[in-house]
Amino acid sequence: MKALHIYAGPKARQHIQAHGLHPEHIGAIPGAAGGPKGLILGPLDRFIFGDWLLHSTQAVDLVGASIGAWRMATACLHQPVENLKRLEHDYIHQQYPIGPGQKRPSAKQVSDAFGASLQSFYGSRVEEVLSHPRYRLHIMTSRGKGLLKRAHPIATPLGYAGAYCTNVWSRHALGLWLERTVFSASHHALPFDAHDFATQRVELTHQNFMQALQASCSIPFVLEAVHDIPGAPQGAYWDGGITDYHLHLDYRTPATRPIILYPHFQKSVVPGWLDKALKWRHMSSPFLDNLVLLTPNPDWIATLPHGKLPDRSDFVTYSHDFAGRVKVWQSATHASQQLADEFHAWLHQANSNDLLPL
């Protein structure tokens, strides 16, 4: 059974028909939010950043939210293959002991542990990320406004309830509650047009790197918000996936090269986390016309443990069986090597007849 499906927007298909797909064609790589689902992309990441892209010299924009931001930041480190393997190991082996009377770990407990893991992971290597000679990192976060400006035990749930209702009416109006804040490691133009949503851009520096990356991964009510990040507007910052779950951004800007290469864990590119249940927002759009999407075949996913990708529900399912969760997740990530092998093989002939429409 084939593990990999490759989808392409109309302009990307035309490009591949005429030129094939080569590493020098890539202008940007997005990394979606999605928690443990992103683990399935480890072998693809290691092939793309540790092998394929090394055969080109152009600058590439890396745009990430939540686990996607962690993946993209890690790709900027020296020896990306080894560091991406460590990311996979560290993510799989997260453990949050549940105390007496607890049903789940507190948000503070998870935030403290995650912050410590980021410090351990990057330590004194932030300069490697910020000064990469080719990769320009953009970390997506969501800054609260109104009731969400500061985290509060009453105002925050009310604010997110208001944001959810407003978002059903209009994604653009969600900007009344939350603002997309992009922390960028370079002074170059963003690889997308930000006209679609309220957006701030902030320089990513040594002083704010850890806070920005932690904020991008801070799922509301699961982790604590990160407040008052240095160099950025004051306020509470949460998971970048709330405003940009799968980075359905307008990649038609002339600042990028012809192709946006997107390793993803599903075929839908959902705009925001609050759009998960709004199926009419799961369709493609002209924003993605030059995008190539690499994603697992649903029939192949059905062969994984429990017939699904790793996800956050596994933390609950295996709350008292850490070794069991590790085994299941390692089985899935080991199987996902097939995704990278099939992409590698396809690149040798890059047949546009194999492309599925977005």
H and E order: EHEHEHHHHEHEEHEEEEHHHHE
Class based on secondary structure composition and strand pairing? alpha/beta
On the 0-100 scale, what is the average pLDDT? 95
Low-confidence stretches: none
Percent helix, as a range, is 25-40%
Instruction: Give the end-to-end Cα distance, rounded to a whole number of Å.
Output: 21 Å
Number of structurally distinct domains: 1
Individual helix count: 12
SS strand fraction: 15-25%
Tell me the radius of gyration.
Answer: 19 Å
Shape: globular
Number of strands: 11
* Biggest beta sheet summary: 11 strands, mixed
Overview of the structural elements:
The chain has helices at 10-19, 42-50, 67-75, 80-92, 107-122, 126-130, 155-169, 209-216, 298-301, 313-317, 322-335, 337-347; strands at residues 4-8, 26-31, 60-65, 135-144, 178-184, 199-203, 226-227, 236-239, 259-263, 291-296, 356-357. By secondary structure, the chain is an alpha/beta fold. It has one domain (4-357). A hairpin with an 8-residue loop joins strand 7 (226-227) and strand 8 (236-239). Helix 2 (42-50) packs antiparallel against helix 4, helix 3 packs antiparallel against helix 4 (80-92) and helix 5 packs across helix 8. It is globular. The model has no long low-confidence stretch (mean pLDDT 95).
